[in-house]
Amino acid sequence: MLFNSYEFIFIFLPITFFIYFYLNSKRLTEVAKGFLVFSSLFFYSYWEIKYLPIILASMLFNYVIGTTLSKYDIKKNKKTFSKKSILIFGIICNVALLGYFKYADFFIENFNLFAGSDIELLHLLLPLAISFFTFQQIAYLVDSYRKETKEYDFLNYALFVTFFPQLIAGPIVHHKEMMPQFANIKNKIKNYKNIALGIFIFSMGLFKKVIIADTFAVWANTGFDVAQTLNFFEAWATSLSYTFQLYFDFSGYTDMAIGIALLFNIKLPINFNSPYKALDIQDFWRRWHITLSRFLRDYIYIPLGGNRKGPTRTYVNLLATFVIGGFWHGAGWTFIFWGFLHGVALAVHRLWQTIGFKLPKMIAWIITFNFVNIAWVFFRAKEWDDAIKVLSSMFSLDNIILPEKWERKVGFLNEWGVEFSRVYENISGKDNTTWFIFSSILIVLFLKNSNQYKTLFKAQFHLWIFTIIIFIYSIFSFSKTSDFLYFNF
């Protein structure tokens, strides 16, 4: 069930909302939580019922391990397994589950390639959201090991894992961030200010996904997957289309998740803070997919040693962290290379800071944005050849095509190999493609992001008019909706 669907917006969400608060109003708190868990599991299994046993088994396993870690007594358990060994066992089992479904075919395929064998691929269907709920539960185990969380109630733990707004694609939350909110008595009563703000944020996210991201999706998908060749402007339009599609798609999902959670008086952490305004790559990762960046820092980079063991080790740790982050996104060498590029960029940035060089803000932004845009090409490409096709045309001046209507004024450019025809023909683009790209650049650079609007929000008449307009416009555009990109990861 998609957030951007009629059945979710007009059936599932209203029914879940009203029954949850009705049960709370009758002081049936545990029943209300149980209903929310049931609704979340229904939401999850709506795509494919066979996903359900996997998440249930994962929850039960991690609840047992987490509870064992929380209650661990050194004196009582000195003759059994150590606390650290229990944690390692729990992490290995989680990684093994993720690895089996997500990476088994990748490893078999590469083993066949290097060993010359012919082992048959498993062709496993990737369980929905397995990357997100696995990372979230690994964080829970580590927090339990550190005595930073205590959860002895399986119903509460199930709610922590399955709460449907953030279940499928995050934000990745800590137990201590969300569960105290469910325990707060004030949050069991409808809060009309939160409802108004939630609808406002949800509508913004819906508009970003349905109107902006899905428009870019046509050009990005055609450029990467369909077009055999691309001219100079088509290649740049393809890469920029995916750059903006990914941002508006995923930040749109996050806005909708935050907005829906607010209806239930739950505040989820922000996940995006205008990342394309970043002036360096470190700043970008402080703004992009913030909860994943936090996870990579706290549970991979710092345990590896962080920056505590000298410059060389710091660079190695950065590189390792982002290669792992790239591999987490997908079972492919293009994802690993994307992570490698960002790891190298962060190492270079750290070295740059050590030397003490600073660039003018405009130049710093141009370098950062273009690096991110070029790196996204590898992230999006299904095969190396797709990435090379786009990148080679982006940096070739032998295939420039300008609009036919310009030929009268600048026809002399024919002598320089410039042709005049339909500029975006190979990516199904139109005359508005250029306008759409430049408008998006202006939006990400000069408009406030949804989190800033959230802090400034007041239930004023003009905001309600704005909300109604973008909500209705998005609703009538559902005929061209697509899945959220991060469902694939």
From TrEMBL:
Keywords from the named record: Acyltransferase, Cell membrane, Membrane, Transferase, Transmembrane, Transmembrane helix
Example GO molecular function: acyltransferase activity
Residues spanning the membrane: 6-23, 53-74, 86-104, 124-142, 154-174, 194-211, 318-341, 362-379, 461-479
InterPro entries from the UniProt entry: Ac/AlaTfrase_AlgI/DltB (IPR024194), AlgI (IPR028362), MB_O-acyltransferase (IPR051085), MBOAT_fam (IPR004299)
Gene Ontology cellular component list: plasma membrane
Subcellular location: Cell membrane
Record bears the keyword Transmembrane: yes
Any Gene Ontology biological process: alginic acid biosynthetic process
Domain of life according to the entry: Bacteria
Bilayer topology: Multi-pass membrane protein
PANTHER family xref list: ACYLTRANSFERASE, TEICHOIC ACID D-ALANYLTRANSFERASE
Family of the protein in this entry: Belongs to the membrane-bound acyltransferase family.
Protein name as annotated: MBOAT family protein
Species of the source: Arcobacter arenosus
Organism lineage: Bacteria, Pseudomonadati, Campylobacterota, Epsilonproteobacteria, Campylobacterales
